[in-house]
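Cross-check.
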Amino acid sequence: MSNTRELTEANKSFTASANTAEVYGFPDFNLGANINSGTATHRTSEYGFGNGIADLPGTKVEVEEIAEMLAKNNWQSNIRMREDATEEKFKNIDSPRLLHIATHGFFMNDIQFTDRDQSFGINHNDFNANPLLRSGVLLTGSAKAILLGEKSDGEDGIMTAYEAMNLNLDNTELVVLSACETGLGEVKNGEGVYGLQRSFIVAGAQNVIMSLWKVNDVTTQELMSGFYARWLSGTNKFDAFKETQLELKKKYNDPYHWGSFVLLGK
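Predicted model, tokenized:
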């Protein structure tokens, strides 16, 4: 649960959309830009990426496996990778039953800005005032926008929690945030965590799978593939999630590999 109040609330009636899915992963962060590695390290470290924003080849495998499983189970899917995984298309999502996002996530805490008044087109004072601007996921062109200030189709490729609240997910059964630290946020007034996970719930999603710390690219792909294989075969999502984690636990003793993700919702 995102806060204890939900324990006293009655379950709301929910009708999932038809078997439709939007799957985003393996974005082209640089989008053809020639980015100097020294500049990349300096500027992206402000957002938690000390060595620049690297590609995630494991997310390509993850998305392709999920797409194959969805097709075998007769789901209608839009698969968005590389230059197709844009923020513009993401904002036009129309309440699919499943929304899966495999990319870099970020959560800014104790931000120390060094040389600029604005980032992502937002004044630094606003970051401190609104925690929903300090968490999100990176999509196509995000590195280009951060490092060069160049946007594509008017978007910077950084989907913040603040923007996610405005998505249309009223009939979305599950949002999967297959990225680092997507469950983090700032606690406000006893109402739980204000972050990306809360924003997707506000947007209408019934359940959210999210991470609590920086995750391993390879083992995340294993967890996601195992979860979908079970869920799409008919196992309810809570059992499918638990069974997959227990299977990974047998293979990896360290909870770092199997314990980072949690399933939010009833």
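The CA atoms of residues 62 and 222 lie 8 Å apart. The chain has ten helices and 13 strands. Passed to J.P. for a second look.
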